[in-house]
Amino acid sequence: MSILSSFWDQFIESIAKNQKKYPLLFPLLKQIHPVELTEEKIVLSCQNQGLKFYLDKGKPHEELEDSLSEQAGKRIRIELSVTSTKKRPKDAPLLNFQPTLSDLYYKTGLLSKYSFDNFAVSSTNQVAHAAAQAVTNGLGHAYNPLLLYGGVGVGKTHLAQAIGRNVLEKDQDKKIFFCPSDQFTNELIESIREKSTPGFRRKYRRLNLLILDDVQFIAGKEKVQEEFFHTFNSLVSAGGQVILTADQPPSQIKNLEDRLRSRFSGGLIVDIQPPDFELRTAILLIKAREKNIEIDIESAKAIAERVSDSRELEGTLLTLYSKVLGNKEFIDFESVRAFFSKKQEALANKLLPQDVLKTVSSFYNIRPSHLKSGLRTSNVVLPRQVAMFILRNYLKMKLSEIAFFLKRKDHTTVMHAIDKINRLTAKDPLIKREVDQIIQSLNLST
């Protein structure tokens, strides 16, 4: 038996005898195994990302490190990693000088986590998904360029990278490069400084596929736009494919040269909308499966109803899992309900009615004083009703308090407003999204 195995077995036996001393730790040890032991540290591997997230935080981390140090008879630190459950990859080389797909991903700027397989599709992104699939089947022929635009977290980068990965898996000889626009800018500046622009041009103009992420950031940079214009022309004329992502369509990107705007508009421009409820639920289930976290569909739906931002879904999932670990091995509906109930209480305790007023008026681009005025125009009435809805449901203010705060005659006006917003959010996805975004802003502000 190795020193590492012997040390770990003795540690497990010691913890088992002192479960009262470490009540949170013992149930988790079966999901951890030791990887390396040195004079100064022990490397432990966790079964999933959720467990690592839990053990990395505060007291659990201290408890684990203290108990291991006690077993070792000296102070040692712990390092946590996540167990890879993947088998030997199919792309493993026959000879050691042949690069694997993982090597190629790194070289091309692609991340292996982005693929078509884990991209959830719904009505908000199905056109973009279909266009991406078409591009992979004929680089330089289907849509050139393909420009995907939308807000933060809608999946633009995921889809663009999935195209690159799919092409690379089909043909490892294809020259592909994924490049954030700031990297393109920095490389160009460096090549000018080092007087090596010919090398820079060879790198970019001989590609089969160039993916430029967040292209809006080259706008206003004269030399960068000029270089990319010539890069674009060289690539396309040689049969190469260009894929672009942006936060808005070319027609709305300020300070973008007309010749580039024209080139970008010459292909297919696809708008990706924020994920709807069904898509958010699917994304959450995919993330849970990837991280080996057990969650039922009803719990996933409960989270998706409350979290509108797709990137926040993953953070919420990991936070929830860290809170149930030690008591349960999975996330259930009761855990979700309790989590959001505490979160709502915390929000109500930290926020003031004035905070809600400022956030709502800022979102709808009106003055806070308008919400307290007698104005009854449509651009004021709806925001005022939204403010009442949030003050009631999230700050738990009394109806009479809300009426007094917003200078309404009595509480019946507030009741009517809350009923109306409840009806609108149930049947109008746009209103639901607006209310969710305002609440999200309030969450971030605290």
TrEMBL record:
What the entry lists under SMART domains is as follows:
AAA (SM00382), Bac_DnaA_C (SM00760)
Comment on protein domains = Domain I is involved in oligomerization and binding regulators, domain II is flexibile and of varying length in different bacteria, domain III forms the AAA+ region, while domain IV binds dsDNA.
Q: Any idea where the Chromosomal replication initiator DnaA C-terminal domain is?
A: 352-421
Task: Write down the PANTHER family for this protein, in alphabetical order.
Answer: CHROMOSOMAL REPLICATION INITIATOR PROTEIN DNAA
What family is this? Belongs to the DnaA family.
* Function as written in the Swiss-Prot or TrEMBL entry: Plays an essential role in the initiation and regulation of chromosomal replication. ATP-DnaA binds to the origin of replication (oriC) to initiate formation of the DNA replication initiation complex once per cell cycle. Binds the DnaA box (a 9 base pair repeat at the origin) and separates the double-stranded (ds)DNA. Forms a right-handed helical filament on oriC DNA; dsDNA binds to the exterior of the filament while single-stranded (ss)DNA is stabiized in the filament's interior.
Protein localization: Cytoplasm
Give the record's keywords alphabetically. ATP-binding, Cytoplasm, DNA replication, DNA-binding, Lipid-binding, Nucleotide-binding
Upper classification of the source organism reads: Bacteria, Candidatus Roizmaniibacteriota
Quaternary structure, per UniProt, is: Oligomerizes as a right-handed, spiral filament on DNA at oriC.
Name all AAA+ ATPase domain ranges: 142-274
| Gene3D superfamilies in alphabetical order | 1.10.1750.10, 1.10.8.60, P-loop containing nucleotide triphosphate hydrolases
Region listing for Domain I, interacts with DnaA modulators, in residue ranges: 1-92
Q: Main location per UniProt?
A: cytoplasm
Q: Which InterPro entries match?
A: AAA+_ATPase (IPR003593), Chromosome_initiator_DnaA (IPR001957), Chromosome_initiator_DnaA-like (IPR020591), Chromosome_initiator_DnaA_CS (IPR018312), DnaA_C (IPR013159), DnaA_dom (IPR013317), P-loop_NTPase (IPR027417), Trp_repressor/repl_initiator (IPR010921)
Instruction: State the protein's name.
Output: Chromosomal replication initiator protein DnaA
**Binding of ATP, residues:** G153, G155, K156, T157
Q: Cite the GO molecular-function annotations of the record.
A: ATP binding; DNA replication origin binding; lipid binding
Pfam families, per this entry? Bac_DnaA, Bac_DnaA_C
Q: Which GO terms describe its cellular component?
A: cytoplasm; plasma membrane
Q: Where is this region: Domain IV, binds dsDNA?
A: 325-446
Q: Name one GO biological process term.
A: DNA replication initiation
For the keyword Zinc-finger, the answer is no
